[in-house]
Design brief:
The complex is a heterodimer of chains A (85) and B (755). Chain A is α+β, with helices and mostly antiparallel strands and 85 residues long. Chain A is built from 1 helix and 3 strands; from the N terminus they run βββα. The N and C termini of chain A lie far apart (42 Å). Chain A: Pathway: Protein modification; protein ubiquitination.
Chain lengths: 85, 755
């Protein structure tokens, strides 16, 4: 062996993988935040439903709180369940 | 004796009473018994039957006082005349006689007042109009009205004595004061006492009056005194001008001002002190401003502290706008010095010199202002203005001001690993904030700072995290949370990454996986880091890496769903162990360079084209990373220019004293393109900021005039930068195009918000 790797310091950046560009509730880009937040990222995360639709967490929680009876996905009207991987 | 009113003859009682009054007023010895009798005489007359004789008593008393004072006046004057005949230098005597007479009379009249207390209390007070009536009815107390005996006595004194002798007295007083001035305040204390007494008698004689009690003093004495002093001052100033330089003149004036205010206290009534002072300042300073300022420029530029101190003292009492010249000169001086030290700078460490020289200038003048100008806010703000204009000066119209960049780099130098001790770094960072505050383009600073911070964090070059945090907190204090929140984010990412690495390593251990590589990964959040161009540079990851990277990605995705990792290979680096040489070396280098070295595992020679194709590197990246490898002599090339056919081979003869070293990479150095890129991105950010600001303002106001809009935009952007008007106008135009706002129909310079 002439050359071996001793150690490596890697740098990576992360983004959301969403099935759409924008949040279906606030129409803001997933790369940016929901209207209430100032900084994208961990403070304003995305969540997925079992129906595979994706929203800003703050947006969908607000939406669900406004639904008195059936908690439905605002996009497909299936009943909303958080998809926990 | 009984208090019952009884019938008395006025002529029986009055002569007795009159004699008594005479004794009292001349302060002769009076027996208690006689005093008591007289006291009841007043009472008896006031309550006499069938008619009270109070009025008659009053008029007789008045008459008596009239003639008494007239007699005194003649005594004061007559002797004076007599003395004048054979001795022209008898002037002090007049004052002396007046003073003695007044001392006696003023005391006597107080006693007489007490003797007549029944008359005063019962007869006269009753007729007096009350205070409120006096104020609201606006009746002047006419002469016919009766006064209390004490007041009557003083009034008579005023009429027969003061008004009669005033001119003469004042002339003598002024001569006395002049003599005091001439003798440098060494007039004998007795004479001072006399003059002081005479001057104060003008006040005391009217003291009983509720309003205008100083009128007599002001009319007879103060006016002429101020005038005479004014003339004296003008003369003195003229004399000084002839023999003094500016600096001596100021010293003299300060002395004179001090003497004069002592003199005023010695002689004058308190009400005159400020007036005389003013007069003095007027004649010595205001009238001579031209002269005082004539050497101002030299004094400032030579920094003659004593002279400047004197000038400050001298100019202190005059209105601010007159001081402007000194302040302006001072400002110019600081500015010139600042420009001199800062703008000739050249070379590698220009940023260090810039900040430290500027700090020196700032520190020097701050100290000077404290020492010489008593930390006067006018001068401090001049210092601020001067510093700001030096720091924000653009070398020419076209070139941008680079101070923000320098200051940010200065911080970088301090915060990078070095041998300087922490306390010193801390102190320097604090000082640095002083300069930072003057920067107008704070957003430029922020851009540079965050890029440099990112480099420090990624390449682990920070001296200490505490120092880094401290600096960010200082910036937060100076510019607010908005300014630093991205910087804070970067910090969080780094600490989250450390946790992540620990967890990952534990995970590997638990599953008994050995990657053979010591892995440390930093995961950054895309939005918070100034990562530059986000486009991924094509790169075929060598298989030696692949397994490790895959392991980490899997682990990460498992931990955080819905996230995608993008590797920023141009920021990664690692250590390679080289075993093909006589000694084995451990070399730190960039990922691309590692990949190149790994290719030589199976062979000793490769052409540039082969390397480039295997790794799928573009020309620019290849050149940038290959060059340092050849410079370090780890690899040899058969020609200077690296073209496709150039042969690269391992240098088996390589030796180095150290077994552990680093290949300096071109990337860690700031290239001019990068600087330009940073500046351009600032411009983009500014446009977005301005547009957002305009929309926000228009949404709140609905309709706004052009100028008002510009003002509001300026005030919003003040914290981070000063936009030029042209840029704001462009933003307004583009918002009109995008139909956020429109021009109102009836007016050309008015905009309205479109919902």
């Amino acid at each position: 062996m002439k050359v071996t790797i001793k150690s490596w310091t890697g740098v990576a950046s992360w983004r959301w993988i969403a099935n759409d560009e924008n949040c279906g509730i606030c129409r803001m880009s997933f790369e940016s935040t929901c209207p209430e937040c100032a900084l994208p990222g961990d403070d304003c995360p995305l969540v997925w439903g079992v129906c595979s639709h994706c929203f800003h967490m703050h947006c969908i929680v607000k939406w669900l709180n406004l639904q008195p009876l059936n908690k439905q996905c605002p996009m497909c009207r299936q009943s909303w369940k958080f998809n926990i991987h | 004796m009984s208090l019952k009113p009884k019938r008395v003859e006025f002529v029986d009682v009055w002569p007795r009473l009159r004699r008594m009054a005479e004794s009292v007023i001349t302060l002769r010895q009076v027996d208690r018994a006689v005093w008591n009798t007289s006291f009841s005489d007043v009472y008896t007359l006031c309550v006499a039957q069938p008619e009270p004789m109070a009025d008659r008593l009053y008029s007789e008393t008045k008459h008596f006082l009239d003639s008494h004072v007239e007699m005194l006046a003649n005594k004061v004057l007559a002797k004076h005349d007599a003395a004048n005949a054979n001795n022209t230098n008898s002037r002090p005597d007049l004052l002396q006689r007046y003073y003695t007479t007044w001392m006696e009379y003023s005391q006597g009249i107080k006693y007489l007042h007490l003797l007549y207390i029944y008359l005063n209390q019962q007869h006269i007070k009753k007729q007096k109009i009350t205070d409120t009536e006096a104020i609201y009815s606006n009746q002047s107390s006419d002469a016919a009205e009766q006064m209390e005996i004490g007041e009557l006595g003083l009034d008579i004194w005023r009429m027969h004595m003061v008004e009669y002798l005033a001119e003469e007295l004042v002339r003598h007083i002024l001569e006395g004061i002049a003599a005091d001035r001439a003798s440098n305040g060494t007039l004998d204390s007795h004479r001072v006492q006399v003059i002081n007494g005479v001057i104060h008698s003008f006040v005391e004689v009217q003291n009983y009056k509720k309003t205008g009690s100083l009128k007599l003093y002001q009319d007879f004495f103060e006016g002429p005194m101020l005038q005479a002093s004014g003339t004296y001052y003008t003369n003195e100033a003229n004399k000084l001008l002839q023999r003094c330089s500016v600096s001596q003149y100021m010293q003299e004036v300060i002395k004179i001002l001090e003497c004069e205010s002592k003199r005023a206290q010695k002689f004058l009534h308190v009400s005159s002190l400020t007036k005389l002072r003013k007069q003095c300042e007027e004649k010595f300073i205001n009238d001579r401003l031209g002269f005082i300022y004539s050497e101002c420029r030299d004094m400032v530029s030579d920094e003659r502290r004593q002279d400047l101190r004197n000038m400050y003292i001298v100019l202190q009492p005059i209105p601010d706008h007159l001081k402007a010249e000194l302040i302006q000169t001072f400002l110019e001086h600081i500015k010139n010095e600042g420009l001199e030290t800062v703008y000739a700078l050249k070379g590698e460490n220009i940023h260090i010199a810039f900040v430290e020289n500027m700090l020196k200038v700032h520190h020097k003048y701050q100290e000077l202002i404290a020492d010489v100008f008593e930390n006067d806010s006018l001068f401090l703000s001049a210092l601020d203005k001067a510093c700001a204009s030096v720091i924000n000066r653009r070398p020419s119209e076209r070139q941008p001001c680079r101070s923000a960049e320098y200051v940010a780099k200065y911080c970088d130098t301090l915060l990078k690993k070095s041998k300087t001790c922490e306390a010193e770094i801390d102190q320097k960072l604090t000082n640095n904030i002083t300069i930072f505050k003057y920067i107008e383009d704070k957003d430029v600073y922020q851009k540079f700072y965050s890029r440099l911070l990112a480099k420090r964090l990624i390449h682990e070059q920070s001296q200490s995290m505490d120092a880094e945090e401290g600096m960010i907190n200082r910036l937060k204090q100076a510019c607010g949370y908005e300014f630093t929140n991205k910087l804070h984010r970067m910090f969080t990412d780094i600490s989250v990454s450390t946790d992540l690495n620990n967890k990952f390593n534990n995970h590997l251990k638990d599953n008994e996986i050995d990657l053979g590589i010591n892995l440390s990964i930093k995961v950054l959040q895309a939005g918070a880091w100034p990562l530059g161009s986000t486009q991924v540079i094509p790169f075929a990851v060598p298989q030696e890496f692949e397994k490790s990277i895959k392991m980490f990605e899997d682990y990460y995705h498992n931990l955080f769903s819905g996230r995608k990792l993008t590797w920023l290979h141009h920021m990664c680096h690692g250590e390679l162990k080289l075993s093909h040489l006589k000694k084995s070396y451990i070399v730190t280098m960039q990922t691309y360079q590692m990949a190149i070295m790994l290719l030589f595992e199976t062979c000793d020679k490769l052409s540039c084209r082969e390397i480039q194709n295997t790794l799928e590197l573009n020309d620019e990246t290849f050149q940038k990373h290959m060059q340092p490898m050849i410079e370090s002599k780890l690899l040899n090339a058969n020609s200077e220019n690296l073209s496709g056919d150039t042969r690269i081979e391992l240098n088996f003869d390589y030796t180095n004293k150290r077994t552990k070293f680093k290949i300096s990479s071109a990337l860690q150095k700031e290239t001019p393109q990068e600087v330009e890129h940073t500046i351009n991105s600032v411009d983009e950010d500014r446009k977005l900021f301005l547009q957002a600001a305009i929309v926000r303002i228009m949404k709140a106001r609905k309709v706004l005039k052009h100028n008002a809009l510009i003002q509001e935009v300026l005030s919003l952007s003040k914290v981070s930068f000063t936009p030029n008007i042209a840029m704001i106008k462009k933003c307004v135009e583009s918002l009109i195009d995008k139909q956020y706002i429109e021009r109102t129909a009836n007016s050309g310079d008015e905009y309205s918000y479109m919902a």
